[in-house]
Structure formats: structure tokens, C-alpha cells
Amino acid sequence: MLIEKLLLHVLIILSPILIYSIIYENHSYKDKIHLFGIFQAVAGFFCMAFPYPAYGLFWDLRYIPLTLAFLYCGYRWGIITFFAILLARLILGGDAVIFGMISITLSSLGSFVLAKWFWKFNPKQRIILTALIGFWPALVQLGILFSYLYFSHISFKNDFRLYGLVLIFIVIEVIAITLAAKLNETLIEKKILHREIQRAEKLNTLSEMAASIAHEVRNPLTVVKGFLQLMQESKNNQSMEYLPLVLSELGRAEGIINDYLNFAKPQFDKVEIINLKQCVSDVITLLEPLALKQNVKLKGDLVAESLISTDKNQFKQALINLIKNAIEATNSGGYVHLKLFEVKEKTIITIRDNGKGMTKEQLSRIGTLFYSTKEKGTGVGTTISVRIIEAMNGTISFESNLDEGTKVTITLPKIELYEVSAN
Q: Which residue segment(s) compose the domain that 245 sits in?
């Protein structure tokens, strides 16, 4: 019966660790340490709520949560757990309540003293130290047990059942506290590893971005450098004919830099109320020459007269990037169809083409930095479009099937006429 009770206590002790790891999976171990401390206090209280009474005392693993609270949560939560256990012991009462209170006080001294230096040790040493400290409450409890039996004039010298209970108690207590410490350290290690992975991903992204910017900007600058050298070597006014090309390449370099700045943080310099139908119509008109050149039919079905609040130039840039991608992905003789309509409080724009489409793997990566299905693409344009739509409190989604085409759905919050009047 003692084994069953103590195994129940082991479950009570390990549950807070498992629950804590699930609830705060995306936080570091110490971000919500107060909750872990509360869990230990509750675990200590419940261990006392289901004790195994024998020889006038209560046998339980209450001191494991107490030790864990002091070592892993600090003095404050260790003391709170101490009083929670003390309260539970007073509620249970009994003839040995004084001995129980003395036992609780003495058992907390070991972890109380060592808590100050606990985090100076490495994880393996902390597990060993916790296991060793786990012996101290066991020794205190045994001392209290035999003291109680002695002062109660109860004979125990030839009581082999008592010695069996003592042995089982010590073995399970040491195994339980070692297992709990191991789980705690695994949780801490997992959080540290997760943080390091995030840091490595950020550094990798910065490295890729730096390489991409260097590559994209170097090309127009190389052209500019060559023309400037020609102009320097030229001895007549013929060099002036190179100026438009130099300015064009510098403009291209400036555009590339602006694209990366927009990726980092879309700048809405001039927010205004715009007619979405007129804006989309302007973009279609702008891209019709490109569509004709590719022998792609670009058509629009604009039935909504929605108003939105945004930076017109930024929004047009987002649409241009997406429609241009659709045109370039469509074979000669294909089509790109835009549709603008309203659904309740939302305005929806769809861009559908019957181009080459994408696989599921390609589709899952659309909108991520540096990914493009085009041979010479960088993926920045699509990413910028996604960021602009999201900055407008809108959403964007992609649907595609290989050799069947792609559909882009943009959902935006519309503004009612009375809102415009109020402004």
C-alpha cells in the first residue's frame, strides 16, 4: 500500500513540470517561474492530502516539491511551499503534529542553505546535487520517526516491517527527486536550445540578406563604374551620352535599396482614403503593356466601390508585384483575371492566372524571404507585398496547383461612407 501511495505522489510531483512545459512552450524557463513555484506549493499540499499513515506518522513525498521550490524557484517560492505544507500538516492534525512541524522545518534547511549557490553549477552537477539534497529530508524524517517511536514507548527494534517501509520510502524518494530534477534540467536545456536556434536563424537571415543586397546592388554599380571610367577617358563631349545610362543604373540601385527598406518596415508616408476600384483599374492599365508583350490577356471584373485607408503608392506597389508575378508565370495565350468584390465588412481582391502553378512545397514557401520560383528572382517583391497587405490590417493567401495556375486572395477592411464624413 505504501508503494502505491508514494507512486501517486511521484505523479503529483512530476505533473507540474509537464504542465509547465506545455503551457509555456515558447517562453524561457524563468519567464514564468512564479507559476512553477505555485505548482510546487500545490504539489506539496496534495502530497500531504494523500498520505500513508503508519506508526503514528504520515508517510509522503511532501519534501520533494519543497526542495524543488527552493532550488529551482528561489527563496520566495520555497518559503511559500513551506507554509503550504505546514498548513496541510496542521489540517491533518494527529498526535504527532508537533513532530511533523519540526520535520518540515528541519527538512527545508538543506535546500534553503544551498539555494544561493545552486545555479552556479552545471546541469549535470545540479541533478546530482538535488539527488544528494533529497537524502537530507529522508534522514530528517527517519530521525523524527524513531524519535516519535522512542518517546511514545513503541518497540521497533525487531519490527522488520518498519525497516522495509523505511527502505522503500528512501529508494522511491531519491528516485523521484532525481527524476524531477532531470526533467527540470531537460526543460531548461530545451528552452536554451530553442533560443539558440532562433538566434541562429536570425543570423542566417541577416547573412542571406546582406549577401543578396550586395549581389543586387553590385550589378548596377559595376555598370556605373564602367561608364564613369569611359567618361573620364573620353576627350570630347561624346561622353555625355553615357549620362542617361549612368542615371538609370543608379536609379535601379536606389530602387533595390528601397525594396529592402520596405521589406524591413513598410513606410506609409501619405495615408489617405482611396477608391479601391479606381486604384486597381489604374494598376491594370499600367500593366497592360507588359501583358500584351507576354501575349497574356489581362482583364478585370471590378464590381465593388469600396473605400480603404492606406498609402496609395505602397498599395499599388503591392498589387503591381503580385500581378506582375502572375503575368510572368503565365504562358503565351493565357490569362490573368482580377476580381474585386465585397463580403460583409470586407473587401476582397482575387488575382487568378492559368499559368504553370506551383507544387505544395513551393506554395508553402511563397512569401518567405529570398524564395522565388523565377530563375532570376529574389522573392523580395512578393515578401514586400505580403508585408504591405499585413500592415494595412489585411490578409493574403495563395492557392495553386501545378500546371493549373495560381490564385491570390487579398482581404482588406473597408471604410463606410459615414466614417469618411466623420473624419
A: 216-264
